[in-house]
Amino acid sequence: MLRHKSLMLTVFLITVLSFIQIGGTVSASPIYSDNQVPTMTSNTSPSGIASASSEYDHLSRAWTGFDSQIGNSHYWTSNTNKGWLAYEFNTPKVIAKYTISPIGLNGYVNRLPKNWTFEGSNDDVNWSILDQQTNVTTWLDGTKKEFTLSNTKSFLKYRINISTNNGGTLLSIGELEMMVDKNAVQAPTLTAVDVNREIVLNWNSIPNAISYTVKKSTTTGGPYTTVADNVYGTSFTDKAVQINTAYYYVVSAKTVDGESGYSNEATATPKGNVTPPQVEGERAILVITLNTGLEKEFDLSMAEVTAFIDWYETKALGTGPATFAINKHNNNKGPFAARKAFIVFDKVLSFEVDGYNVK
Q1: Domain that holds residue 206
Q2: What stretches of the chain show up as alpha helix (H) in DSSP?
């Protein structure tokens, strides 16, 4: 009986210790995947893109740092003692761990990295530093080094950016591997498109997601502000946008295990293109529907209608005055020299033009 209770207690402790308390929520401890970079046979095969700051010769191409082998002709070498080695995935990933293997040849540890940063990017221009290592000198042939990250953001491209090696005239890496945390909540993959002066967002469904949070910025890379929280579907339309302004969006998923990192950053710019109505006749009835549902009707000459349409199209493209004055003509009741209705661009939901001829 005592042995049975001891066994139950051991199982209980193992179960409890397999979780870590983070920020008030219970989150499974990391379980790292296999290498997410496929075994490369060229800089673009079988998938993704391997690249480097430089390649010493045809036997030291970038992809040889991702070919799942070490030794002769199976390691990347730069032209100098510093540089970077990168891999771009087909879809964004949240890399949580990376490993570096020596080149597998005795006497070349002085080529290996000493000081570096591990970085991620979604546009190959703006890079986020995810890890920084200094004075790494204890390399042994045949022994890889492992480095874990606290990264929660998904990136398309990752690189190791080496500022100093261990004293050699050239820089080499036998193999660079990247892993994800299989226990981490997966980040969505996001798209954004401009539809009728609004930004429509769509993303894939995340297993066991309770809801999603949408954030945006007018600057790539953020900082982001929350647009919508507790979104229960996999799409969202942002109507609070300005014409000809670029917006950058990210989405995160919430599950009982916690919240994912950000999705890839998706961008769109509302253009506000308007197809002008083709109307025949000497005059026209212009009916303007406001966003409150109120309709305003005007009997105007075709020249006045054309002027209104020109104003609307120009303002939709981001230029011109915010209001347009329409002469009320025969509706000028009272002791007034003239009466005009001022239409505010942002209040117009739609308009209709019905042309007619004067007999």
Answers
A1: 190-268
A2: 2-17, 302-316
